[in-house]
Specification:
alpha/beta; eight-stranded parallel beta barrel; homotetramer; 10 helices; TIM Barrel; about 350 residues
Chain lengths: ~350, ~350, ~350, ~350
């Protein structure tokens, strides 16, 4: 931690800050510049992190030196984490997030009925997708909108999982539902609106299932890593990070997909990186170009929404691809993956 | 709902949209302009709200005519809601949010220990504040930061409430804790990070306690009203709305306090409006000017954080006022309230 | 400047940075913490400001210690600047920005015709406004929109100025027009879209006329001060800073008026602060509450738009007040100003 | 234009709006829904665009039906524009923006000295770049920062252009310099800060040289197209649009590169699309992944900054690639271009 003193801060004020640092168990290192005094605090910066040192007399501002995440940081674990989903049934291959093969996750936004879900799962599998996504519990802005099939939706997911052998990713919205969801899901999803629902993060951190955390609409990349830190520090090392768009002033897209987050995360963390161009753009015709761009930027996985009849979808139909368009996208992704030395 | 067709949309496409509207139980009203056809859907717009009509062939875009909130809207209830907190003990006055008297809510960010809490409650009361705030469950970006005293914090709040007669506002973060918190709190707070934790909104909607919903950092005013709608539609009409800053590119403040939300909410809803300049700015020296501005803009209540020794606070010390500064602010607020025809 | 080295940076890399600092004429001050080395550069930080020290091997990041503005900073000039507009005709009072009396600037968005301008100027004067604003050169998003009357508009302003004795504020958009505009205007306005039109800033810095710089929609407060620095460093000390809303995700208002900028600027600079709630909100019914809030927050001046018949205005009619509403607002502002120890 | 009346609007108010529409030369089309009346204005919407119809009594809000850009729209010109730069010297190939071959533009941020510029131009050419960029006039946040070599910089560009045969792109910041810059430049650049410097847009619209308009940090895609409309409507059809990052709350990157703008622009306009990942990210190590992503998303050109010794660059060194890294990026871009059916 570096404490910059105000111009004209008195020796007493400098000593006050130094004493405060000592009291917290660190060593102050005072350095008098031309215009002002700067104090470095040598020792475990975490002890100072929540202390409002800027409230001490004479302090102008306080700057962190060390990143606040530890377990999630590449510095702490220089080897990339591979999150492996074991085969759903014997004889199948596991799905590995974080190796050279890019994982494509696909499925309908909501689980609407068992037949449609099965049909979509078969499309995903046939086209080369390796994980089925589908929402049973749906966070909706309006209380009057379709809220998902809930437990029944989970059952349909379990059946289709068994039937097709595709591992399943689905969202959990409530601490009370974590066990229930984790029984069915191969990957539990924490949605963007719950990225800082810290009790939910702790709860999924305590269950053994892999977790995908979606970046909140107003959250920085550092905060996303801190949310991962909640899960990791509870003992669950199987965390995927998902960029799905942030909120900006631009109205042409539902959100602004921040693809730069992909190389930034690659520089900062060992955890695998997923991109969701469906929620990131909100319009089906932008999904394919942004999925290609995600793979070109280095994403480990891409998650897209599909629907047999988007204009009749119960949620987010505008961003859903038709099965044919999805199959075409899979071929494009294979080509782009090859261009960056990977496969799909 | 108004559906704008693409330039050159065919008669078949127009009829397709019209048929779709009819199928959903509304009446299409086709209007051919010079450049393009526009179709109005006459009937209950709510039935169309989640339907991705933009996915139908020939559609360019779709525009809502009716606001998506009903119970929260001023159109639905033209008389302003007063949320009344009954007296904590016999002989005291109730606290009313939404009448001519501006309510000041104050207290420490976190409940740290019972003595400090009691001391702060006395300062609040003495200076003219009418509700005590203090966090027992604390949402923190880092898992390594102080997470609040939890149940013990609630107990301290209950004791100080009894001791001072001040009603208490405290945050609930988890659906599992709603009952526990509602037993102690006179107002249950749903924090900014949980504004779209819809299960939590439903749960506080089912308990009878007044609820203050804080606007999320990336949430629009319309979304704040939709979150209120969750609580109202579960049968709890006692909802306060709190502006506490949104996230923007400006680094000089922790958030950008969007005071325009005050008159916008006043135009849109009958619910009382609270402003939190402490979280809204993040710096103690900006709290007083912005609290004054909030009252001048028409807020029904103001919530500020105080601490006996901000540089030792366990959370958010940088934005806490000293008791003396708070007392001084109370005098300023009284003057500004008088200037806009209110009292404090 | 403080240079934080990467964890594991080699002694050679540390020495490389130190040598680089010495080469630029400063003194390195190396401080080895537990996790990493931090290097302070003692001397004139301005010499390092544009140097990409983060490109040197082993550097993690670089932090500024000193604010980049000098002439605009309160540290450099602790006494507040009063910008005085001399009386338009003998016997009148000067208008002073920055003293205890809050200045109200008002007028139509565009100069449309001489009669309307004169009528509006009389309304401004009668209600207690002290500066007339009106645009002759209009920056418009669309090339097909009304672009202002240009030179003819300036002439009308000059006539009405003479007629009423009200000093005039009007915008300059082009370096080629600075002289022309400065001949007529008592205050030259640099609009939000030109806040970083650096040649224009230099040009108005070279003319003696007071300048009001409006904050750009995507510009930080620090950048606003740097734009002031352009004008100040060219020798023109008569600079007003205007907050008029920044661009955020919120669609309920045209922009998000960042009133916190008022106390932030007061802490950082000696220059007078103006707030424009008309452009800041974009809706006439939000103008009065936000104008009151601006005065409560400490603004030295408020600028509002008025029009005799807003629905026929050639630009920005939606945010214009009727003369009656303006007169009513003036009375409200007087009350709020009194509450914070000022007059209008 | 569609005018939505308030719930409870009177027949007189409806007739008032209808009369106003007729007066402006359009035909009102009144449609009474269940909850409210909606009025369509049939005719040339442009006539209504600047009219504040929301100020008429009884109006709730007003919605545009037609996009405000005409010449820039794909609807107006369904065939994609190819902007061709004629060969610098006989025997060379022209450079075409908008065909199957992706154009790479590269060079130093600032022209610093003639030798460095020539060396960099040779690197660009050797690696397969086809346009040289370099700034002679530099917009800098601080008046104390290096402001570019100005006219001397233009001369160096002219010499290196002659020497290497590479066409040159450079920025113009001032209406007074347009002719001067256009004499040397094959493409004149209007920078992000000047995207809404409308006089500058008109001036470059009047010169015959191709123009690249960079998106402003707070500007929507629609506004970028409106700025293009300024140039097009002055008679210059040779316009390139450049995405270079918008301002958001995320501090990890200098700006947030909005790559979704690429497919959005492709859907809306016939003009070629350039992406600048150097300014878009601000960090050299993010440039290559985002340049690859830009090509995968469908960009027609990519502009990157290079420098022989970034840590000594006079501007923006942190985002400059070394010549070797640039050459490597060119090979990557060739692979990605091939994957999407293009070449470099």
């Amino acid at each position: 931690m570096i404490i910059v003193m105000k111009q004209g801060a008195t020796p007493d004020q400098v000593e006050g800050v130094a004493a405060h640092i000592r009291e917290l168990g660190l060593t102050p290192h005072v350095s008098a510049g031309e215009e002002r005094v700067v104090i470095g605090a040598i020792g475990d910066e975490a002890k100072l992190r929540d202390r409002p040192l800027d409230m001490l007399p004479g302090v102008e501002n306080v700057m962190q030196v060390v990143k606040p995440y530890r377990l999630a940081s590449l510095a702490a674990q220089p080897q990339r984490t591979c999150v492996t989903i074991p085969p759903v049934s014997p004889g199948r291959e596991p799905v590995v997030f974080g190796d050279a093969r890019v994982v494509v996750i696909a499925g309908p936004c909501s689980v609407e009925d068992p037949d449609m879900l099965l049909a979509m799962a078969r499309c995903v599998k046939e086209a080369g997708g390796r994980v089925l996504r589908g929402g049973a519990f749906k966070p909706r802005t309006s209380p009057y909108a379709f809220q998902g099939l809930g437990v029944r939706g989970l059952q349909y997911l379990a059946e289709v999982r068994r039937e097709t052998g595709l591992p399943v990713m689905t969202e959990v919205m409530d601490t009370r539902d974590v066990e229930l969801v984790a029984e069915v899901a191969d990957v539990v999803q924490v949605g963007a609106r719950n990225m800082q629902n810290f009790n939910l993060l702790k709860a999924v951190g305590r269950c053994g299932t892999p977790v995908m955390i979606k970046r909140g609409l107003a959250n920085t990349i550092e905060e996303l890593l801190m949310s991962a830190e909640y899960v990791l520090s509870e003992g669950n090392p199987r965390v995927l990070l998902c960029e799905r768009g942030i909120r900006t002033f631009e109205p042409a897209t539902r959100n602004t997909l921040d693809l730069s987050a992909v190389p930034v995360l690659r520089r900062e963390t060992h955890l695998p990186i997923v991109v969701d161009p469906s929620h990131g753009t909100g319009h089906w015709d932008l999904v394919a170009p942004m999925a290609r761009a995600a793979v070109a930027a280095g994403a480990d996985a891409v998650a897209v929404e599909i629907h047999p009849c988007p204009e009749r979808a119960l949620s987010d139909g505008s961003q859903a691809l038709l099965p044919d368009t999805f199959a075409q996208l899979m071929r494009q992704l294979a080509a782009v993956a090859a261009a960056v030395g990977r496969t799909v």
